[in-house]
Amino acid sequence: MFFQRFRRQGGLDDVQDAISAQRKAVELTQPSDINFGTRYTNLGAYLLARMQLTKSPNDIQDGISTLVHALSTIDTDDETDYYPLLHNLAASYMTSFEVSGDPEDLDACISNRQLCIQLTPPRHERLPFWMDVLGTALGRRFEITKSQSDIDEAIATFETALSITPLGHPFLPHLLYNLSMALVCRADYLGPTIPLSAADYDKAILHRHRAIRTARGRLDSEELANWIHSTALLLSRRFDRTNEETDIHAAIIGIQEAIDLLSSRSPPPPNLPIMYANLAASLYARYKSAGHITDLDDAIVTQKKSIELCSSPRDSQAVLGFLRLGLWFHERAEKFGEIRDFEEAIIHHKRVLAGTPPGHDDHAGNLSQLGNIFLTRFLRIGTRKDLEFAVAAHRGAVLAHASAPSSNEPISGLYSNLGNSLARRFEHSGAVANLDEAIEYQRKSTRVVSDALPILRATMFNNLGISLTMRFERTGAIGDVEEALEAHRMAAKLDSQEAGGRHETEVTKSRTHKLNNLCVTLLRRFERLGHMQDIEEAILIQREVVSLTHDDDPSLPTHLNNLARFLLAQYGRTNEIDNLGQAAVLQQSAVDLTPDDHRDLPAWLSNLGGTLLALSEAKSKNNHSASREEAERAIRILERASALFPESHPKLPSCLNNLSRAFHLRYQSTGDSVDLESGTEAIQRAISLSSSDDVQLPDLLLSLGCALESQAKVEGISASSHIDDAINAHRKAVSITPETHARLPVYLRALGASLEMKSSVIIDEVEHATLIEESLACFKRGALGYTGAPSARLTNAILWAVGSVIPVTAGLPLNFEKSLEAYETAIKLLPLAAGIDQTPERRHEVISPYSGLVSGAAAAAFACDRLDKALEWLEQGRCLVWNQLNGLRTPVDDLRTYDSDLADRVTMISTSLERLSSRSLSSVYDGRASTTAQDDAYQHVKLADEWTKIIDTVHAIPQFNDFLRPPSTSTLLQSLPQIGTVVVINIHGTRCDALALLPGASDLDDLLHIPLPEFTYTKSEQLVKRLKDDLFSSGVRERGLNSEPHILPSLDDERAARPRPGREPRKSDDVMREILAELWKFVVKPILDALAFSVCFTIQQNRTID
Fold first, then answer.
1. What CATH number was assigned to the domain covering residues 428-553?
2. What is the 3-state secondary structure (H, E, C) of 476-498?
């Protein structure tokens, strides 16, 4: 009676009274009494009930000792009493274990249960139940020992119990449920890579489904809902392993059914908020897998419902819900850019912080996550205060972690987040101190992150590499780009080593992202140093990125465009037109893969149009017939791109600029003036869309000026107002460009040329002279500028020199004196423009257009009686050209033999000065928003300073005091032979001269200038033409000419003119005599006369001249 009331009401007094009464009954019963065992069994049950209620060690010990004594008095063959007592003793040890945690109690429980099963006949009705509780106890011990033998035995025990349990047995659902739990434990223990693990999960889910089917109608709705809910969680966990979408669909359906079973209850069951939270998590998982935004929306709504059911906003379940909402709103904001989503993310994350105040183990991590949200909103909106909030939150998180040693958030992640926000602040403000601090924190993150987290380590090395690359772009420190490459290589290596339970698609995306960043850094080093192996490696790796990316991956167009970008960079170095063709094919594929409504389509089209334009220009230079076809296609594509770009898009002006150039290129083929007008309209629109501080504006103005000049030429310069508009455009480009900007020499050259063009039609002498003087001032400024590409400065110097010679007023003699400074500047720039690290072939290709520079400079020096300069410049030109033609050493080769490190630094700085001149245009192409005119100026000033210092260092070495400059006259005179006179001849369009270096000459007085007034450049050309024509008519080919396909290559190596195969050579004595006579009369004899040499002709009698 007492125990029955206890079972109804749970009162301690009732169970105490029941034990006292039953204990008295046992004492009064003789062991031989038929009821003795039953009364002991009941006493054991009451004692077990009390110890489970009170958890009192005294009660537990009392119960165990009583049951042990009872078992000692009852025969083991007594099925009715001995087995239940043994079962209760095992249950008592389990209760003792739960209270004390003593493993020996658990061992005693298991051994007694095993004994109970061993003694129980196979068909005993209670055997399945006793096996079930044994399996449960073995599972508990496995949780402690992690010994696979325990969980294996537990599963075997459950399976045996299941095999002897008949269908329809009321205990069957529970047995199936417990077996599935044991299988899940073993699967989790083995890990996802072990085949047995996957099989255990599959079996567990099958048994769980069977348990639910058999339990329907037997369990109450709450317990059934719990079973369905837990089964859905198993499906969700299997989805995490396999990414099989049917599992996540079934999980969502199952949790929804569980919620439906409980939603009508009032008050709501306490586990209902958890069910809603798990449904939200499953919806989010399906969103991440399938990408359906409706799942993310439903996840947010469902999570809000979970929070509403929580008892308090500070409840742990509510705080977790706020955290999820903050993250999910943040993710939706990142995807769609909706401001309201950012606000919701911040609101919910602030609620998370309210539930995890300072000192809480999760405070630092939550504060850092809030910083991430502010940072993302800054990137979307650009509000400075969001960036400052982000930095403050991330800095606060680092400090909070220091004051909470038990923080759940790894310090490595906090360091990394702070570094990322500081790097963004650098991009916004340009203050290098922010980037320096960012890199220090990111370095710390890579040092302290656990080796057991390779994926996280990969992310941190990736972030460090990005920041180091940015600093390299700003400061040019080679150590930064080297460290950046090491970081990116480590990130790629770590990411490929560990899948981390991620789906194959996620692994591939992560790997390609990191490889792509590695390629970008290789590109940056190539742009600065010009090492071909860098761009070749970037292309090789990016090809792998493209091959790894599935055709349906939305990032494939980006990867294709990047590969094209690297090929274009390589083209800039090699001029291999095939690179342009490959790039165009890749960009066309990117366009074809991009939906018509995709936001990146205009950019992809613009890139393709720009490449086709470059391809057309390259073919046009080679008189290729297909150049017009590319121009037509470029126009169509660029017109489509410009129509798709929003008016406010930063790439639209660049697109319109290319469109303008494409129209101009087509005009060169068609002569249709409509193309010129269309080109001018396009570039005018580009300028109207650009702000006054836009980094592209000077180049857009340059294009406008050139377009207007072309229109002026068509209409007639004197009759057109376009030339004045062109001059104004060029003036503005110059005026808004910093003095130290690398492109300033280009803008100055264009302005000077337009002024010169206008002067050609001006009759008024004063206005004409003013325009010429301003034009020459532009060329001079462009040549003498502190920074800028040597090639651009050289072009200005040549224009300055040539323009200075021509008198401002018609009829006056040539003014060579004014040109000397310009020529000296040009001669100094020529070896730098040729590229001190280039191959001889490439250097010859570069200097070929300047073949008349040295002779013009020498002519000016002769005219001004500056024989020292004439000699130095002629020797400089002779050495430069001769070395190229004969494949001799470049200027830096000898220095490298002496000091390889110094030579490498000279090469690096020289190459950087040339390459950075085109940086502003390439920056527009690749979308680097951080590049500004001020950044370019900083870089070039720094490089120019380094160049000056390092050249001074080289010149301080005795054997290199003439490095990259003409050898001095004194040096040349010291090298003269002791016997014989050396004569240097210079032929130029303005005059011809000879310079005789007498034996033993030691100063300028020993140089003899011999003018050759009767010999002209025109006459020399005529003699050359006559010689070629005569040789051709005689069937003699020039050395190196291989016009017949069957001629052996070895013939080309012979250094004399030979008769062409198949032709009979004829004699041409008359022509040769005439040419030699001319040379004798106008060149040789005047020189010999000046040297006072007598000429004696001696004819050998036996010699016949044919």
1. 1.25.40
2. CCHHHHHHHHHHHHHHHHHHHHC
